[in-house]
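for the writeup, i need someone to sanity check this before i put it in the appendix. the sequnce is what the collaborator sent (i think, or maybe the updated version? ugh). structure was predicted straight from it, no edits. if anything looks off just tell me and ill rerun, i have time this weekend
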Amino acid sequence: MIKKLRELIDLASKFERKRKVAVAVAEDEVVLQALNEAVDLNVCEAVLFGNKDKIRSLLKEMKINENKFEIRGYENKKETIKAAIKSVSDGETDLPMKGKITTGELLSVYLKEEYGLRQKGTMNLVSVFEIPTYPKPIIMTDGGMVIAPTLEQKVDSINNAVSISHKLGQGNPKVAVVGALEKVNPKMPATLDAAVLAQMNRRNQIKGCIVDGPFAMDNAISKEAAEHKGIVSEVAGDADILIMPDIEAGNIFYKSMVFLGNAKIASTILGGKKPVVLTSRADSNEAKLLSIALSVVMS
């Protein structure tokens, strides 16, 4: 398992064939800055889809050499998104990235059957954190896509998170399904789901990991807290993956770790045929770079 998220850059740069990122509506300073650094570090190549004049003007203002990129000109936003997604579908590029558009605008095209990128499972946001007070990187889902996941969607979330863990070198990750408390309570559906998911794992319906729950957050990540409450579990206090009960819990965890916990972060959208690079304006430049690298590693 990698120890530091900067190792994602090394992993992405080692591909024999450099991955190409298709940026939909690329006339965005924040996105171009992240891509510039990614290209300089050999993480990827980039094809910029959008208004060619605006893109070139931005690159000039930012003092970035436009020859680093392939630029494909489109005036209409809808046509730009379609062209970027089609390039991924046709194999010209390897994965899409959101430019100056909403996540919904990008995914609504990505999910159209004609492009063949949609799969049966749930697409969700998976984030990897490097937290100064935790001894190893920890993966969390979902903090930005699925509002109130069903049991079936939580299975998909586990599988998506486990796929990242395996790719990063952790062969049998410990998955903690978290909620407000560590006991099954019939009045709290998240605890019931956690117990079912743990049993599904024991019966090999969820593979490649060890799943247990429910856990409160403290006993998922602190062995001392788990021991104090008498919890006996391989996962307790040593989680590699956290499965959140809903988007509110996931989003609060995400922002708390970044803004209060000084965590480094890399995120990608998984569940489709190709990962989707999604960066937020609130993310640091390093987070944007690491998210591109993670998505490339998963492509």
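Residues 233 and 295 are 32 Å apart (CA to CA). Strands lie at 20-24, 45-50, 70-73, 95-98, 124-130, 138-141, 174-179, 210-216, 241-243, 264-270.
thx in advance!!
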